[in-house]
Amino acid sequence: xxxxxxxxxxxxxxxxxxxxxGETLDNNDALKQLLLAVAKKAGQFTEPxxxxxxxxxxxxxxxxGETLDNKDALKQLLLAVANADVxxxxxxxxxxxxxxxxxxxxxxxxxxxxxxxxxxxxxxxxxxQEQHNFVWAMAVSICEPxxxxxxxxxTDQELxxxxxxxxxxxxxxxxxxxxxxxxxxxxxxxxAGCVVLLFHxxxxxxxxxxxxxASLKPDFTDTTSSQTQRRAEQLFKQGAADGEFQRxxxxxxxxxxxxxxxxxxxxxxDGKTIEYFVEVQGPYHYTLMGNQRFPxxxxxxxxxxxxxCLQSLNESDTAVKRIYQEIPVEKIDEVRQPATEQTxxxxxxxxxxxxxSL
Length: 358
Fold this sequence. Notes:
Number of helices: 12
Structural class: alpha+beta
Strand order of the largest sheet: 1-4-5-8
Order of helices and strands: HHHHHHHHHHEEEEEEEHEH
Number of strands: 8
Helix content: 40-55%
Radius of gyration: 21 Å
Distance between the termini: 47 Å
Largest sheet: 4 strands, mixed
């Protein structure tokens, strides 16, 4: 209670830097008390640095696997962002804020923050890391409207904002000559480039022409398998012939490898070849705020890339039906392989779960 806004912000930032460096936080009560402080005093955050450091810090802690179980902390922090003037922020503060908001899936707050007067052309003068973070955040902003349920399409205003963000993104990606050494940053830039390519391929914009820099090579090999994913793997593997099942499967699009999906399975139903591309959605795929739960930025981006790629492949090749599935972690145990050799029952069950459409 004695901490001032700057002191709370500095502490959030410091813990995030420790986690980024690989340190563990053994005292969960400390983080809980800190989140309580954010929830109580975020309304007093009026200066750019406390807002920026806290948004970035919470996003980093969440990315590192920490549980941010105080829903009011994010809610109050976002109110501070909503009242902020982007023109008072320095480049690093803008970059950290929009990256943190995108990472946590707070896309509308990110757009509103930039709409207060930010000029996108300024980023060409920023240091590289600030530019890289900003470009990834814009890629998430571009994708998010297209990953919603088919009945909740983007508004005309959102589409306009999206296309403006695409324009900024393309301009920046054309200038990349020295990709970052950091794997995470390089992967983020690569995914942003894939977004631009798919926007052009799907006809979402007729003004986009972009060629991925040859030097911008991603590395998606650093993946870990959770207990839930391993359980899902065993269920999906049952009955699949050799060579027709794979974990951490990477789609290729125009020679570019996309981030891997958790599970790929191929089967034949009524003479039709079907390929399933399955993501197991656990709690870390979502951000909690009040009574709301929404997908984080990485989930939005991956959804768009995989769905768009499959849509393009299905249009060019009708011999195979390719289905993207998201199965919530709580429904994994409902997925059962029928005892018979026929797989129609399994096929219907999986398709009925959470299939999304562009």
